[in-house]
Structures
1.
Amino acid sequence: VTSAKAFGKIIVLGEHAVVYGEPALAGALSAGCVVDVEKSEHGVPHLMLDTQVFKVSDADNGVCKAVRIAQEAAGIAASALDVTIRFDVPVGAGLGSSAAMSVALPRAMFARADKTLDDATLRELSNQIEKVFHGNPSGLDALLAMTGSLGLFTKKGGLTPIAAKQPVRVIIADTGVQRSTQTQVSNVAARRERLGRPVEQTIEAIGQLSRMGAEALQKGDLAKLGELMNTNQGLLSALSVSSAEIEHLVHVARKAGAIGAKLTGAGGGGCIIALAPPGDEEIVASALRKHSKTVLITNLGAP
Ligand code: PMV
């Protein structure tokens, strides 16, 4: 068996504002996607995805298509391999699962073919695979999936890495509510159109929180980071991208002692993140488990 992995991601501060040129503070997660490939024993190569099994040749399945893109690039002849894709982050919840897969698949195929895979080729393949699932990926998710880093991201300048003073653990809980990034982004655009300046000021304020968050991480000031997260949640709610389910989990986390909690990603559903006093992660996580089916504790800025 040949294995490869890539990281998921979270936006710690600054989602939505990043669409308007403000910085977002984002980091890779130690959790992500693992791809195993091995010689097919039954002649018809299979793709195992969680509990589902597909034929790699399936023309309609996006993931099968992604597998074929990676195989062809690695020069592996007409799918002689079984492929298993495992996620240890919730899928389709804003945690960069598809980007992690788009990086892990080419890595696994090139390793299997004993070929080196340079960064430029991996970026290109990952972008090609991401496009199977998303219209216009910003590249942030793929970058973090590849490098496992942490930094301030802007649309113009890309990622400026930052060094956190100490390792930071984050608790993630899934509301279980499906959401569409596109819908959420256009809801913000519509509100900005209608209300103008106050919404623009909210967006600028969020950008400022991201910059302050980067500084807090560099200094190791987690209390400050938590306060910035709570403030950002308030502003995201002002932008209309929060929801009853998100607010509920955020309050459960805070009541259990989290120093900061907010939605992450597009909002409207998806996941929340919480910051606990170091050592108390399990206390916050177990409170969240009573209200969410998927709760994980992970390192920010993996590996
Ligand atoms: O798709 P998600 O949940 O990772 O969220 C995207 C973050 C937004 O700022 C809302 C949109 C964007 O393109 O940056």
2.
Amino acid sequence: MPARNMTPRTKASTRHLVSINDLTNSEIECVFDVAQAYLNELGDRQLKYRIGRGKRVAPDSILATLFFEPSTRTRLSFESAMLRLGGSIITSADPATSSAAKGESLADSVRVVGNYADLLVIRHPRDGAARLAAEYASVPVINGGDGSHEHPTQTLCDLFTLKQKHKSIKNLKVAISGDLKGSRTIHSFVYALARFGATIEPLPAPGMELPPHVDRRLREEFSSKIVARALEQGAASIDALYVTADEPHQQSLFSGPEIDYERVVIEKKIDAVYVTRFQKERWSEKDVSYPKIDAAFLKNAKYSQASVMHPLPRVGELDAAIDSDIRAIYFQQAAYGVPVRMALISLLLGLERGKSLRRFESGFQNNRLPIYDQPRSMGVQCVNPNCIVHEPSESQYVRNKFHVVRAAHQCLLRCAYCETDLDSFVTANNRSKWYSHGRNLLSDAGEPSKEMLAFATEEDACKEGFHLRKNTRPGTARKATAAS
Ligand code: NCD
């Protein structure tokens, strides 16, 4: 029997942080104001970036860390943050000693632990796991890294670090190096950078470019414009440069007076180089060619003022010889994890007088996208093999759930869990049993009706007994396919 709609659960008012796009720009600034206040009040007298004392802000609250993947910084800085706030922590950091080893689903675990704690921080190897957890938990869920999807609190630490160093997080020029495909830190980071008007210079290891859905969102939803494709002599690794207008999300800004983006881009010095390690646990290849950031790389004049950042851990891609270079700020970046997470915890728990993330109505995507929602047994499934929907233990708790996105030409389906895009499918009507190649049929009437289904291919639709829509004018179906 197909799973019934089992999306009950979380109270509508509960705020979660699964994607950096769950926070508006002003909410991000609000987190930073609170973090700064904690640093000012409780900062170590010698080391200005370190929290040295505590305060009884959350004496009655409990934070649970549920980690199904290794972690040092994220888990310990969350726990340190909660302890500095006077709260308590409970932790499950070893999947081998938790009920996961007995086959318990994440959906069940978070419903149970939600009764023991007021806030859950989840880390999981599957993309989209944090969204699933948020659907089932009765208390706020914070994504501490889910597969290669996102790591929003790392981005908050990264931006806060940039703000300390450069005074502002607006209009920065940031180079991102390494495994841009597998690094969840990068995905949250580039969305946020674009939203604050940055220029982003990708320096991927070969074959590790930004995933197509992240690239598409930067261009189509975050107003980034790609310029300087292979413009710089001898810089073959630069195949795209994302330039975002000062005020992102207003495409009209690009239609103003002609700006010589290419000149601007080449002449401007880099403000930060963000280095990431090869995410070996997410690749089958083990022996890969990988960029190394060292003193020789940083000699280039355009990096003369660049802060060197890394979410850590590093495993050889960032030379330890530059630790003493004034540009190296990765240990401060890790230290800021405590004040930033103190701010986030106290805001999510509603403990900051006059300020609360709970009071904001929605995140960055305030125009909520229509949702396509069908049982797991029906129609198209997420195409990302690492998505949580493909985890056998979760099969009764997930649905074929997608945001319907109006892309440049035809609508596409974005997995509601891992946010991978699906841009090739046929639409079908479950009552009349027809299918059509017109993808826009899904979103024509706003929220897709429960009768409307999507199949990955025409063959899948036929196998389920659907036939090509009768009133499709000859040739229309084929044309629609060509446009897809
Ligand atoms: C990162 C992660 O887990 O994604 N680490 C962290 O949280 N600071 C980066 C990494 O593991 O490479």
3.
Amino acid sequence: MKKLFLAACAAACLTSLPAAAQFQKPEDAIKYRQSAFTLIAAHFGRVAGMAQGRIPFDAKAAADNAALAASLSALPFTAFGAGTDKGMPNRAKPEVWSNAAAFKGKADDMQAALAKLNEAAKTGNLDQIKAAVGPVGGSCKACHDDFRAEKYSAN
Ligand code: ASC
């Protein structure tokens, strides 16, 4: 009974670690990271849209979306483990793994830029938000330039 309890506890602990999502197979990791990037882009996109005047400015919506994008930015990079280059079509270049330190640098840049945008959005000041949106977009693009392929892989 005690052993069973310990085993259940260990399983619960492992599955509840947010910064170390566990994946059954490479396809699960690829889906997870693609989903995370989709959500980050959706929430950042709403703030960027307000900064660019495409979406009416709403301070509360900007703050909520910036906070979500900043929180979500912690997620995708746990899902680039060894062996997750294949499993389903994806656009991660081999350099993600062969140049892992540089990839980590790009991830850090994106997380730092989103953390700054989150702070700017908390002020409710559109000028501060505008100033913080550009570096986020720049960090997306810098990583895509080096680490995201134009075309999806065959598998
Ligand atoms: C986004 C999004 C990206 C980046 C990029 C910025 O909102 O989906 O991939 O910003 O367009 O250069």
4.
Amino acid sequence: MNTEPALPNVVTTVEALRREVAAARRRQQRIGLVPTMGALHEGHASLVRASKAQGHFTVVSIFVNPTQFAPGEDLDRYPRTLDADLAKLSACRADVAFVPSADEVYKPGHATSVDVDRLGRRWEGEHRPNHFRGVATVVLKLLNMAAPDVAYFGQKDYQQAAVIRRMVADLDVPVEIRVCPTVREPDGLAMSSRNVYLSPAARGRATVLWKSLCLAREMVAQGERDAAVLAEQMREVILSAEDARIDYIALADPDTLEPVERIDGPTLAAVAVTIENTRLIDNEILVP
Ligand code: AMP
């Protein structure tokens, strides 16, 4: 018996995707959607496995969305590894890979976008203007294309998940959003498609993000409650990497993302740091 998992069915048009989804619904299956930009790693695979574990007919979109990149960002050099991606999807038994072209997603004359106020303005929104407009717009489009019961996102992009939850609630999108834990390399670096940009030396230095979050967690466990003190200690850890440039260190309410001064309940610690021209983000919930 051949036990090799089959490749997922690859579809490139919205029409073909909807046919696949409709057929699954006729078989009484629920639909799970995992939106990605490809260059898949174990973080993405964990989302696919979470969907498959629920028995969902699992659609993985692979689309490097041009509207979420600012001019001068890495749109052109973003890693594109479709064959390897499909092999990974086959290993975690995704059902459909939706791999549309930019023209399929953004038809001529496209003029509508989604702006999530407040949540989307701070941190990433400040450093990457229009980023979340591109993300929210493409995610809403993917939700409308695949009409999933559940869509899966990673905690690694905490603010992105918060923005999408807000959008789904505000616009009455009938989907459940599930956020899965960040998958890390053995030394703690959060897996990211962008990690391949790092030279071996910079890859070593990149562990300072996770080290700073671990230190904050440790300090909170030992009773520290002052957010400014935590941020200062995190800053020192991050700047111990030569050439590290801090975009932000934030301690905030995990729901509203409003900054906090004291750690009185579960608190989001989030960092964005550029090392050797590669911008990295990470976060952890600190629990007093
Ligand atoms: P991306 O392809 O980077 O746009 O990511 C697609 C989805 O995978 C997003 O929901 C990310 O939050 C999630 N993701 C990326 N990296 C990780 C990771 N290390 N652990 C868990 N989820 C991740």
